[in-house]
Specification:
single chain, Rossmann fold, five-stranded parallel β-sheet, 4 helices, 45% helix, 22% strand
Length: 125
């Protein structure tokens, strides 16, 4: 069993202030020795330099998958993918950001019976 904290951040859009916060948080956690990963929407363009920096520094990877802005039945598919990814990576913390990322993290955390923490941080405009 590893003593290194494994954190997976989940958010929808890789742009704006919420993304900047997650970017800085993930890089800081990685610098402190945590194993960090990011899950975000593949359809949103995002900042290629910041996404590249995350890909280079997040040992659990930068995973992009389609995520709709609006609530719908496909959200269950996305939740399933995040659940499988979190279980495969053996994460200790599944941290959702914003409404969509928070919902995905909380649902996936319950589905994999996360031994650590499944939490979300609301971000307001």
């Amino acid at each position: 069993m590893s003593s290194t904290l494994r954190i997976l951040h989940c958010l929808r859009a890789p742009s704006g202030g919420l993304f900047r916060h997650v970017h800085d948080l993930a890089l800081g956690q990685a610098q402190l020795g945590a194993e960090v990963g990011i899950v975000c929407d593949s359809r949103a363009v995002g900042d290629p330099v910041a996404l590249g920096r995350l890909a280079d520094n997040c040992v659990l990877g930068l995973t992009r998958m389609p995520m709709s802005r609006h609530v719908g039945l496909r959200d269950w598919q996305v939740t399933g993918k995040i659940t499988r990814l979190g279980a495969k990576l053996g994460v200790d913390v599944l941290h959702g950001h914003g409404a969509k990322g928070g919902a995905y993290a909380r649902l996936a955390g319950r589905l994999i019976r996360l031994m650590g923490e499944a939490c979300s941080t609301p971000h307001r405009a």
